[in-house]
Amino acid sequence: METHQLVRFSKFMSLVLRHRPHQYGLTLDANGWAKVEDLVAAAKRANVPLTPEIVKQVVAHNDKQRYGLNAEGTAIRARQGHSIKVNLDLTPLTPPEQLFHGTAEKFIPSIAEKGLVRGSRQYVHLSLDMATAHKVGQRHGQAVVLTVASGQMSHDGHPFYCSENKIWLTEAVPTAYLTFPTASSR
């Protein structure tokens, strides 16, 4: 299957599994899992030609590994990024000393004032490396990568979690734990 087709299916799956399952007649359990057959049926109702085979291809080829299948391959969930309440069964972990957050330059004034806030999502997403954070930041404009003093945050009592696909999550990052690049280094 062509990459652009997989991207189209992935975007639909993201919308349904992370943000609007009820709009498409899909029910997620408390941990965000849905039966693959129910996801396929929801897609059919939306005139999206998703099949169980395509679902498996999207899971296997998604560069960010956004989705996970259960051991039997009969249920699927998004690994993070939900704007609806789900319990991902995450265990608090000690993060590396530094993590990174990619954003667009236009959001820097708000972040400088409020820190990183989760907005409509359950968590703020942080990357292990600057390159990944830069890629994330490019989605919304001129990318800026912020450094997060995650080790100090954790020491100060802020919980961190790591999703199955190695995205670090926390509820918020106060400005005191952020390092902003200088304008000349952006």
Descriptive overview:
This protein is α+β, with helices and mostly antiparallel strands and 186 residues long. The chain has 2 domains: 3-78, RNA 2'-phosphotransferase, Tpt1/KptA family, N-terminal domain (Arc Repressor Mutant, subunit A), CATH 1.10.10.970; 99-185, ADP-ribosylation fold. The chain has 6 helices and 11 strands. Strands 1-3-2 form a 3-stranded antiparallel beta sheet. Strands 4-7-11 form a 3-stranded antiparallel beta sheet. Strands 6-9-8 form a 3-stranded antiparallel beta sheet, with no helix packed on it. A hairpin with a 5-residue loop joins strand 2 and strand 3. The chain is globular and about 50 Å long. The N and C termini lie far apart (37 Å). The model has no long low-confidence stretch (mean pLDDT 94).
Question: Care to give the gist of this entry?
Answer:
This protein is α+β, with helices and mostly antiparallel strands. It has helices spanning 3-19, 36-45, 52-61, 108-114, 130-137, 150-155, and strands at residues 34-35, 67-69, 75-78, 99-104, 116-117, 124-126, 143-148, 161-162, 168-170, 172-173, 178-179.
